[in-house]
Write a structure and sequence with these properties.
Elements (H helix, E strand, L loop, with lengths): L2 H23 L7 E2 L3 E2 L5 E2 L7 E2 L10 E6 L4 H16 L4 E6 L3 H11 L6 E4 L3 H6 L6 E5 L4 E7 L4 H12 L1
Parallel strand pairs: 5-6, 6-7
Antiparallel strand pairs: 1-9, 2-9, 3-4, 5-8, 8-9
Protein name: Thiol:disulfide interchange protein
InterPro entries: Redoxin, Thioredoxin-like_sf, Thioredoxin_CS, Thioredoxin_domain, Thioredoxin_ResA/DsbE_sf
Pfam families: Redoxin
């Protein structure tokens, strides 16, 4: 076998690996937000403030679109997006909810005590199953749910100014 024939498969593998790495390092911006048209899970979550009470988001607890932000105290991007979540809560009172994902209650309370609590109510998803039912790929993620219980926007990763604008527009209906 000639030397170039032996090198050809290796060169092809390196080329494909390089293209894959480039795609992972520079994904299309719209891959972080998605219009969704699926029903929010009917999962019932205990409230952080009082675990004897519960909340569900299908349908939302109010008769207008709501934002559900899945976050955790151990999540650095959650800390970074917190000012954007707070800004949304200020501009859309009563429409911003939280879901503490795989976090201990005392850690969540410490996180919110330090940064402020922008949420109308906070559900607790200690096992992480509820997040999976939403379609969570990793915290933080934000879902906007219509009054009839459909997920109309799914934002993967931390909010920033552009994504906050998209969420705000979805909350306005």
């Amino acid at each position: 076998m000639k030397r170039w024939q032996a090198i050809l498969p290796l060169a092809a593998l390196v080329g494909l690996g390089t293209l894959g790495a480039i795609q992972l390092m520079r994904p299309a911006e719209d891959s972080f937000t998605a219009k969704a048209d699926r029903i929010a899970p009917a999962t019932v979550f205990p409230l952080l403030s009082d675990e004897s009470q519960t909340i569900s988001f299908a349908p939302p607890p109010v008769d207008k679109p709501v934002m559900v932000n899945l976050f955790a105290s151990w999540c650095a991007p959650c800390r970074a997006e917190h000012p954007d979540v707070t800004a949304l809560a200020e501009s859309h009172p009563g429409q911003v909810y939280g879901l503490a994902y795989k976090d201990r209650t005392e850690d969540t309370l410490g996180f919110l005590g330090e940064l402020g609590n922008p949420f109308e109510k906070i559900g607790v998803d200690a096992s992480g199953q509820g997040g999976l039912e939403f379609g969570l790929t990793g915290v933080p993620e934000t879902f906007v749910i219509s009054p009839d219980g459909k997920i109309i926007l799914h934002v993967r990763g931390p909010l920033d100014a552009e994504r906050r604008k998209q969420v705000s527009e979805a909350l306005e209906g």
